[in-house]
Design goal:
The structure holds 2 protein chains of 2 kinds.
Chain A (H helix, E strand, L loop, with lengths): L3 E4 L2 E4 L5 E7 L5 E7 L5 E9 L2 E4 L6 E3 L9 E3 L8 E8 L6 E2 L3 E5 L1
Parallel strand pairs in A: 2-11
Antiparallel strand pairs in A: 1-3, 3-8, 4-5, 4-9, 5-6, 7-8, 9-10, 9-11
Chain B lengths: L2 E5 L2 E5 L4 E8 L5 E7 L5 E7 L5 E3 L5 E5 L4 E6 L8 E8 L8 E3 L3 E6 L1
Parallel strand pairs in B: 2-11
Antiparallel strand pairs in B: 1-3, 3-8, 4-5, 4-9, 6-7, 7-8, 9-10, 9-11
Chain lengths: ~110, ~120
């Protein structure tokens, strides 16, 4: 049972480039989430999804997009990378209204 | 709206000493409360949670926390620290309302354990 997996583990982007952070869960959870973690700031919710085809904005959605075509996958898209998007990104999933299970994270550096 | 305040960004204890990590929350609805631990270069792992019922909650690795509604607190304790407890600890509150349990995190407390 792999739980929540994220790829890549680390990536360096140039300003203006785009990329997709992948997130997959094998627990058949309806709810999935994307967070970013900045030093001394805790985790901030970017987007979340309550099921395939349904997504909604979190606290810090600007500069990001998401899609949810299947229960298992919840990719996060950065269209025009900016230095402010340098962060560690965590994906999480949960059954309805319960504990969230986190992936190992993707460390992104935008130069 | 909900918020979490963790007092002390860094806490240092000696091995074998009591661990106390403080968390106060604000929530307009009865909260779900969580403590997560993050080891270096890893994701977050659930330590324990409070939803309803008993206010003293026991978690993994000997940690426990007590929900005190009157003090809006959910402090994390462990009677005797071990070197392996060195990590960053996050308190979080969940808004029960709505269809998704969105977590609001505190800024974290880094626990250092010394010999």
């Amino acid at each position: 049972n792999a739980g929540v997996t994220q790829t890549p583990k680390f990536r360096i982007l140039k300003i203006g480039q785009s990329m997709t952070l992948q997130c997959t869960q094998d627990m058949n959870h309806n709810y999935m989430y994307w967070y970013r973690q900045d030093p001394g700031m805790g985790l901030k919710l970017i987007y979340y999804s309550v099921g395939a085809g349904i997504t909604d904005k979190g606290e810090v959605p600007n500069g990001y997009n998401v899609s949810r075509s299947t229960t298992e996958d919840f990719p996060l898209r950065l269209e025009l990378a900016a230095p402010s998007q340098t962060s560690v990104y965590f994906c999480a999933s949960s059954p309805q209204g319960a504990t969230q299970y986190f992936g190992p994270g993707t460390r992104l550096l935008v130069l | 709206a909900q918020s979490v305040t963790q007092l002390g960004s860094h806490v240092s204890v000696s091995e074998g000493a009591l661990v106390l990590l403080r968390c106060n929350y604000s929530s307009s609805v009865p909260p779900y409360l969580f403590w997560y631990v993050q080891y270096p270069n890893q994701g977050l792992q659930l330590l324990l949670k409070y939803t309803t019922g008993a206010t003293l909650v026991k978690g993994i690795n000997g940690f426990e926390a007590e929900f005190k509604k009157s003090e809006t607190s959910f402090h994390l304790t462990k009677p005797s620290a071990h070197m392996s407890d060195a990590a960053e600890y996050f308190c979080a509150v969940s808004d029960r309302a709505g269809t998704a349990s969105k977590l609001t995190f505190g800024t974290g407390t880094r626990l250092q354990v010394t010999l």
